[in-house]
Amino acid sequence: MNQPTKETPQYQTLKRIQKTFLVRCNESLTKIIPGTGVRPASQIRRLEKDLKLKRDELGKLSQQDLLGQMSPNRKGKAAEAQEYATRRAQLLEAIQQMERQLSELELR
What is the model's pTM? Predict the structure, then answer.
């Protein structure tokens, strides 16, 4: 964007704070109002939704792994088992990180 000056057109100085509030200012709202602009409750709800999806994905992955172990005539079992183990480790790490973020948000 252009650098704000005293000659900035009026339509470029309008900023929306919420759905129904407009403010006229030359600077960016991130410099004026601290924070990310996302309500903590909304952020918690989104994080819980993502966490649930990751846990569901981990459950499906475990189910596929067990079904793969049950079938006797599968070629490439070792490579498939290694792939499942790698994906499971990635999912567990992502879940742990999301749980840490969720606990930090809840403590605020």
Answer: 0.67
